[in-house]
Amino acid sequence: MKTPRSQALLRAVLLLALCFHAWTAFAVTYTNVFFNASQTRTVLASSINEVTIRSGDYTFAYSVDGYWAPYAGGQPTGRFFSVNWPTGVQAQAITAGPLLGRGGNIILKRVDGQKFDLKAFTGKILMNTAGAGGAFEIMPLVDGEDAFNDPLMYDCTGYSGASFSHTPSLVNYDTYKIHMWGDFALTALTLIDTNAPLTFNIAASVSSAAMGSVSGAGSYDSGTSCTLSATANAGYYFVNWTEGGVETSTLADYTFTAGANRTLVANFAALPVINTAAPAVPGAGFTFAWPATFTGWVLEESADLTSGNWVPSTETITTNAGQKSITIPAPTGHRFFRLTRP
Q1: DSSP state, 183?
Q2: Which of 82, 170, 237, 338 could be a cystine partner for 118, CB 3.0 to 4.6 Å?
Q3: Distance CA 118, CA 107 (A)
Q4: Which pLDDT tens digit goes with each residue over 198-239?
């Protein structure tokens, strides 16, 4: 017979179970698949023995054999990489210098330190292991501590260039160390977590509100595409996008992958004014002049204003007193001229 106390306890347990079930049912997971051509990467740190790069929400720290020299006692030049982003990430075994014998290592983390899952990976070995066998060693970590006494082993016995795919399905760690005693590369990688993608603020402004406007600014999830558009007002034209005073694009519609907070400025300028001078005497030519400062502009001409068949003008352009000009002989038909900026 159930007492009121036991019934209340049972209801509490059932309620807790229902709440847990609801949470697990509606938990959202995010799958991140590397590597593809659309994924960009940023170098965060670089030394003679290790480079750390970032792509999206993740960092990859890989070992570099920077002390290597082409001959004994020679000037260190480091060894060349055979697998480069976005094909994958290569780890070089350390063959010279203070860290001699360290092997090749790749360390995976989220930028914000949150936990994630290592679902699957493909490793490519870049040396022969057939004689002695070989393995990718993976050690998960939490808060800087190894999760196991010994690393997990995934076979890679073969010859240079061979690839091995494994599905370790390691869950809920904040760091994964992948090691091999020789050179290797990750060429495919699936990471899963329940942490929402990082969000970045993309701000855009104009050099002068009277000259034009911009659109597309806002918050973007990391790894997503962002397009900023600049529209010039009448009498003005778009020059470029700058960030911190440095030109980043000359395209009015500037598309990039969100990977950091950015503040961009759309710069505009006044359209050139073409001055027309009638012939000084009957039968003489017409003169067209514009500011010499417009060096990036091209003079084009057409015999028919409605056909759209504009071609570069063959007229001789002279420069005098800060003006560029051409003189057109008295025409026997219609000729049209325009300045255009490629």
Answers
A1: -
A2: 170
A3: 12
A4: 889 999 999 999 999 999 999 998 878 899 999 999 999 999
Q: How are the residues of the chain apportioned to helix, strand and coil, as percentages rounded to the nearest 5?
A: 5, 45, 45
d(Cα 116, Cα 143) in Å, to the nearest integer? 13
Residues near 5 by beta carbon (within 8 Å), at least 6 away in sequence: none
Percent share of the chain, pLDDT over 70: 89
Q: Which residues contact 56 (CB under 8 A, 6 or more apart)?
A: 32, 39, 197, 198, 222, 223, 259
Q: Are 62 and 71 in contact (CB under 8 A)?
A: no
The pLDDT tens digits of the residues spanning 167-193 come to 999 999 999 999 999 999 999 999 999
pLDDT digits 0-9 by tens, 22-62: 334 456 888 999 998 888 888 999 999 999 999 989 999 99
Q: Is 270 helix (H, G, I), strand (E, B) or coil?
A: strand
CB 78 within 8 A of CB 65: yes
Question: Which CATH number describes the domain made up of 275-340?
Answer: 2.60.40
User: DSSP state, 272?
Assistant: P
Q: 33 near 223, Cβ under 8 Å?
A: no
Among all chains, which residue has been given the structure tokens 């490793």? Answer: 123
pLDDT per residue over 269-312, tens digit each? Answer: 988 777 777 776 666 678 888 888 877 788 888 888 777 788 88
Query: What is the amino acid identity at position 277?
Result: A
State the Cα–Cα distance between residues 158 and 128, nearest whole angstrom.
6
pTM metric for this prediction? 0.63
DSSP character at residue 79 = P
- CATH number for the domain formed by residue range(s) 30-193: 2.60.120
Residue among 192, 188, 234, 189 nearest 213 (CA): 234
Q: Which residue has the tokens 């598309």?
A: 255
Residue spans of the domains in the chain: they are: 30-193, 199-270, 275-340
Q: Which of helix, strand or coil describes residue 51?
A: strand
CB atoms within 10 A of CB 276: 10
Tokens for 103, please give them. Answer: 């092997």
The rounded distance, in Å, linking the Cα atoms of 57 and 110 is 6
Measured between alpha carbons, how far is 232 from 241 in angstroms, rounded to an integer?
Answer: 13
